[in-house]
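Q: I'm a student working through a structural biology exercise. My instructor gave each of us a protein and asked us to get a predicted structure, then write a short paragraph describing it. Mine is SNF2 family N-terminal domain-containing protein. I'm not confident about reading structure output yet, so if you can add a plain explanation after the tokens, that would really help. Here is the sequence I was given:
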Amino acid sequence: MDDNGVIICYGALCDSEAMVTDKTKLSDLSRAESNDSFTRIHLESKDGVFTLHSNTSSAEFAILNTRSSSILNALKDTPMIRFEAIVQSNVFTKRQKRDKPGPQKFVVSINILGAKSAAHTVGRQLSTLSAFLQHPESLQPSISYCNPQFLIFPNKRMNMTELVGFGNDSDTSIKNEVSEEIGNVFESLANVPVEKTLVSLEGLTTALKKHQEDGLTFILQREDKEFAKRLSAKLGRVIGAQIEQTHSIRLGGLIADVMGLGKTLTMLSAILHSAPDADIFSNFHKMLENESVERLRTKASLVIVSSAAILESWESEIRAHFALGALIFIHFHGSGRPREPEVLRSVDLVLTTYATLAADHADQGILHQMEWYRVVLDEAHWIRNSSSKLYQATASLHSKRRWCLTGTPIQNKLEDLMSLAGFLQLPMVSTKVGFRTSILGPLSGGGPDFAKPLRTYLEAYCLRRSERCLNLPASRQQCVSLRLSPEEQRLYDALVSDTKRQIDTMVSNGDKVKCNTLFTAMVKMRMLCNRGTFYTVEDSIASPGKLQPEIRCGRCSAMDEDNLMLLDSCAFCPDCGRPLQKPSPLSQSTESQRNIRSYNRDVVVAKLSLFQPGGFSMKLSVVVQNVLRAGLEAKSIIFSYWTSTLDILAQLLEQGGVPYRQVDGRVSYADRSTRLKDFKEDPQVLVLLMSIETGAVGLNLTVANQVHIVEPQWNPSVEEQAVARALRMGQTREVTIIRYVMEKTVEQNIVNLQQKKKKLAKFTFDTGAADSVSGTLEDLKFVLDMGSK
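A: Happy to help. First, here is the predicted structure for SNF2 family N-terminal domain-containing protein. I'll explain a few features afterward.
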């Protein structure tokens, strides 16, 4: 039989949604055999919308969402095309039990099948609709799978049918059920019962938003001993533990609001509110009978942040929202930090960094000699590794009031939350072992009410609100899919072929394919997608096989002590995925290394500004066109991972007569502030070019109403942080977020990888460091299309 008669599966549209229209018909579907993980459902087109029909009665029971229906409508006239919806079988039984009122939605995956000869035509049609096929979750054994949008190395053959069900295993339904329940718990943590009205705060010059007032109430309640005892008793009844009778009861909790809600101002308001009590704590107390040595008490709250830049952000919030002298603070950072404990007793607030804290702890310095009124961890997810120096330094601080601030309390495994609980030391589960046994144990064990202990714990001690409470103007998301120009494609194909030769050589020599090799190849392809035929002097003189300095991101290339400490326990950079190699103890001295790296960085900075004449970038040309099309009333932030991309954009904007400012790691702090001020206050400055690593955290840029993400990021949260610079409290205009992706390149594969990961259980149990390394290697293989399974 020729290709015209062979039916294959082109792939699946994942994460589509269907809404139930007739609940009575679900009983037919809930009878699926228990050993069938997925149910295939018939789809029909009706008045431009696709409907789902029972396999036994053929009756309609649900409709497909508009976006998915429009994609299928664009393909339905293709000869021999057909579609089937794939749904996890437990969805229907679960919903029958819950019996929730109102419309019910569920996730479906849509397999697209048709003639093998039409595969590339279908692939092109889908690309024009910004629709990208992924591996099918389930497929009939008699059908082959061949994805026309999947990048395959030249002259390479692969059996894509082996990728069906990629990431699924026998425990998938259990993992997804646990993950879904945890997600539901976090979504329910927005309400704060108010028992009494807050008094006005003298010294606070800004009126708090309603959600910030609720946050302040939440903090004050959890620092009230009687209120905390009631919470502890409730949790004790659920987990079957006895109430701890101790004088040293811990108070506090977790503020897990998403980015942009003003967690900093909320905590500063709490520090101001508790100032009278803090003064009594410091100056009017007596030693307990079992205390042999009294630690030096201070009224100060110790706030620990991730970097010196964030220290400045906290200081900026104090100056912007509080009267002069209302909150007395000092920086405990750098060579000029105080050396005498008494200095820390005369202020309301001490600001330091994790790196400084860890160094002070190692030297038995003054921070651990104090008993603080309150300790606050900003971006507390950095202590998620309980074996790290950061965790040890924070957990050994002395304070009865402990708080964690983070928008990502669970990054990828539930043990992250256990580490935060270990620092908080709250009643009933004041140790990591107790938390694992009483809270996480039931989750892994399953059974009825398996999530009740976790839900009770989080309801007692965690507050989480989404951006919905801000009532921000609507935002629009756009994905601009582009193709490389013929000359760009020639360069890209040559790079792919060169990478394939390198990998083949390693395999033939019996060497393992290393993460660093794959990472470097991936980044070079990503850079070419941006820079096109533009190139720098650095490219022409770089030694073959050397890791170009710009391949490193802003976090893992920085030499400051804060970033070095944050990355100390990481095998891979959390922002860019680069393998991190630990320095050998026999290598040059730290100071010598820093001098060499500083020199190299200066050389690179000089080279990056020297472009050879000519050049063309399809992507960057479209970015500038979109800026021009937005008009004089729009203000745009253009984020990119690479300074060379920003330099080319600067050149193109100058040619187009568009006023701009540029901020990246090469700009001094003083100059950075001036440029940001120009963008915010000068109506003539329409564009801010910004390194995504420099501008993703700690900035308020609500003057912008367009955000351009030039390339998909390895870590999607970096994109979210960048978007939050404009889409945050104080924004009054609709914000348009535009993302640019080059088709049939590693960029598209990165997007596919992130979409694939969204299908997996979001929250999992710890799988160990070895699996983490293996997982990153598999991710790199997937992006480079090396047959990762």
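A: Here are two points you could use in your paragraph. The two ends are 30 Å apart (CA to CA). Residues 475-479+615-759 form a domain with the Rossmann fold fold (CATH 3.40.50.300). It's a good idea to check both against the output above yourself.
Q: Great, thank you!
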